[in-house]
Write a structure and sequence with these properties.
Elements (H helix, E strand, L loop, with lengths): L1 H19 E13 L13 E11 L4 E15 L6 H6 L2 E16 L8 E13 L3 E3 L5 E3 L22 E16 L2 E12 L14 H8 L1 H7 L27 E12 L6 H4 L19
Antiparallel strand pairs: 1-2, 1-10, 2-3, 3-4, 4-5, 5-8, 6-7, 8-9, 9-10
Helix pairs in contact: 3-4
Length: about 290
């Protein structure tokens, strides 16, 4: 009798707790917007991205998501439609590793509906490290070269940028219920960063000789690459010549599919809050389901 009483007290609480948790798996593409990308949103120069995390339902509509995502971003002036930018001939690549905490709002109750739009926002901390390949094919990380004079005594207003920073994510998507415990969502999510150096390009060129003296000849080579082009007689620009546009910060984004897998045998967030129950079978804990 005592065991039956304990089961009647704790089984519903444990079952509800399980049904509120979901594993999330993401697969899609990553890209960025900045000085080396012509279009705001495009699949051009995009790369495969993936991620995983957990979701906890606060209510049938509101949930917390904690996740890790990995992707790659890149930009190349050779692919620009602007001849001035093609003559600049800069390029970069960077891995993006991020962790995020999101508050997600699902418009419709997925216990009663098969499809619902959703939105989310929160906070992201991400790490990047831009690099490029020199004329010999060697991988060269750009931050230590101070290509725009960051950290040089001659340019005290240009501080070295940090490789780990915060961003604000904004996401929208559409969810589809494909089974009692599984939801598939298509989403597009943008990360608003607070740096203009995701691509190592922001302001103006600095004095060639000051840069060479402080960081070496390789810094000069990677700061201006127009002279690498065939039949291009352009020389290193003068101090203060425009290199990038500092008016807007860089940003990056993901687009793809997220799979939500509920933990426990419940049919999702709705049941955890008194939603409809399908069937009267026992759950994975051996507790009787509510009819």
């Amino acid at each position: 009798m005592r065991k039956l009483l304990l089961l009647s007290i704790f089984c519903p609480a444990i079952a509800v707790s399980q049904q509120r948790f979901h594993v999330t798996l993401f697969g899609g593409l990553s890209n960025y917007g900045g000085d080396l990308q012509d279009r705001q949103f495009t699949l051009q120069q995009s790369n495969f991205a993936f991620g995983a995390g957990i979701k906890y339902d606060l209510s049938p509509h509101l949930a917390l998501r904690l996740a890790y995502n990995h992707g790659s971003v890149e930009g190349d002036d050779k692919k620009s439609s602007d001849p001035v930018l093609r003559a600049r001939n800069l390029s970069y690549l960077s891995k993006i590793n991020e962790g995020n905490l999101l508050l997600e709002y699902t418009i419709l109750n997925m216990e009663d509906r098969k499809v619902s739009p959703f939105i989310y926002s929160g906070i992201t901390i991400f790490h990047f490290n831009p690099y490029a390949y020199d004329t010999l094919g060697n991988k060269v990380f750009l931050k230590p070269l101070s290509t725009e004079g960051q950290g040089l005594a001659e340019y005290p207003d240009r501080k070295p940028y940090k490789l780990t920073q915060f961003a604000i994510p904004f996401g929208v998507g559409l969810k589809f219920r494909i089974s009692d415990n599984t939801i598939l969502a298509y989403e597009v999510t943008v990360r608003k960063t607070f740096t203009d150096y995701l691509d190592d390009v922001s302001k103006t060129y600095v004095d060639e000789f000051a840069l060479a003296q402080a960081r070496g000849a390789k810094a000069v080579d990677m700061a201006f690459r127009g002279d690498e082009l065939k039949d291009n007689a352009t020389t290193y620009p003068g101090d203060g010549a425009v290199r990038g546009g500092s008016k807007y910060k860089d940003w990056y984004y993901f687009t793809g599919f997220t799979l939500y897998i509920g933990l426990g045998s419940g049919s999702g967030s709705g049941k955890a809050f008194g939603g409809r129950y399908r069937g009267g079978r026992r759950n994975q804990l051996g507790c009787p389901k509510v009819l």
